Amino acid sequence: MANGAGTSGPVFVSYAHADLDRVKKLLDYLQSHNFVVWWDDDITIGRAFRNEIETALQTVSAIIVVWTQTSITRPFVLDEADLGQIKGILLPVVLDAALVPPIGFRQLQYAKLEGWTGGDHPELSKLVGSIRELVALGPSKPCMPTLSRDNNTIGRSQDIVGRMQGLTFEIRRLGDVLASDVPSILKLRGALDEVGKTYRAVSSAILSFKKPAAQPTISADAFLELEGSDLRSLIEAGRGHCHNIDNYYYSGLQDALRAKVTEAKLSSAEMHNIDEAFQVLAEGDMDLFQPLEQVGELLSNESRAVATLVLGGQQDAARQRILDGRMKLQPLEDELGNAIKELQKTESSLGYVNPVF
């Protein structure tokens, strides 16, 4: 149920029904501070209303979980808290003395309200301050894949970079083969640069995410700026495109290489491998280039989650989340670093080397 006359944005309270008498004091307190509060106030709640709450959970500004000896055993409370943790908008409250929050939630600071019977409390003042910071950001995103919960995108991106590296390796010796054929060398450079731009765009996005974490104190503003910059769009704008590779290869470069086969400077088997490599690269927007944009989406969403942790007073949890994210990104960074070095060797054989960024 949504209650509260204020316009400060939706706040969801997750709790066990058995604790309603105690939780109601917290709900009243929050409403007295003009927060719009959502909670499940009917133990026999119908499916339609449950669906309404699940929908509301996707866009609330903050999720307050009330930990008690009862609530830590309730699957729906754990699920709701987990959603809040994914988004970085979880604000825990503990009502029972000596209670330890469930595993997975212990790194978060919480409001200690053991024995609280209503009225003002120093812990509540801090809680209200954190809520106001989160509400000021507006609703959270309804669908928010984050780096911390990703089980596919980073590994897939690493595989894609490895594939691209293998494809460009096939054309490494073409500098010697083409030698004085300047127009063909320029086309080859152009095709390789489409790959290089993609490496550099993804690497730049990752570096943008890592830089703010180097400061002694994590700034919410820095990570909100990252989210606002839309790293996916930045990768999309900076990456290469397969149609450009197609234009470079099939507008004279392929013919020039076939002439080298006739001149016995390139074997038929080598020409076959080169044709296959360029065909994959020239048709690779959906399989190679475009999927790497998803790295930017993860980083933007993770940036918002980090920022909301900081605004919610969870500086330590924010730093740990960043460290965990950096560890998850490391294999992809290593693959990108190796791919860039390999590409630079190929570029060097053609008489030039692009900078990393």
Can you write the helix and strand succession as a string? EEHEHEHEEHHHHHHHHHHH
- Major sheet description: 6 strands, mixed
In total, the number of strands is 6
Which class of secondary structure composition applies to the elements?
alpha/beta
Count of discrete structural domains = 2
Mean pLDDT across every amino acid position:
90
Q: Which percent range fits the helix content?
A: 55-70%
Strand residue percentage: 5-15%
How big is the Rg? 27 Å
List the helices and strands and how they pair.
Layout (H helix, E strand, L loop, with lengths): L1 E2 L6 E5 L5 H13 L3 E3 L8 H11 L4 E6 L7 H13 L2 E5 L16 E2 L9 H15 L16 H17 L4 H5 L3 H29 L9 H10 L1 H8 L3 H21 L5 H15 L2 H5 L3 H19 L3 H35 L8
Parallel strand pairs: 2-3, 2-4, 4-5, 5-6
Antiparallel strand pairs: 1-3
Helix pairs in contact: 5-14, 7-9, 7-10, 7-13, 7-14, 8-13, 9-13, 10-11, 13-14
Question: What would your notes on this structure say?
Answer:
This protein is of the alpha/beta class. The protein folds into two domains: 2-136, Toll/interleukin-1 receptor homology (TIR) domain (Rossmann fold, 3-Layer(aba) Sandwich), CATH 3.40.50.10140; 153-349, no CATH class. The chain has 14 helices and six strands. It has helices at 20-32, 47-57, 75-87, 122-136, 153-169, 174-178, 182-210, 220-229, 231-238, 242-262, 268-282, 285-289, 293-311, 315-349; strands at 2-3, 10-14, 36-38, 62-67, 90-94, 111-112. Strands 1-3-2-4-5-6 form a six-stranded mixed sheet, sandwiched between helices. α3 (75-87) links the parallel β4 (62-67) and β5. The longest helix has 35 residues, at 315-349. It starts with a strand and ends in an 8-residue tail after the last helix.
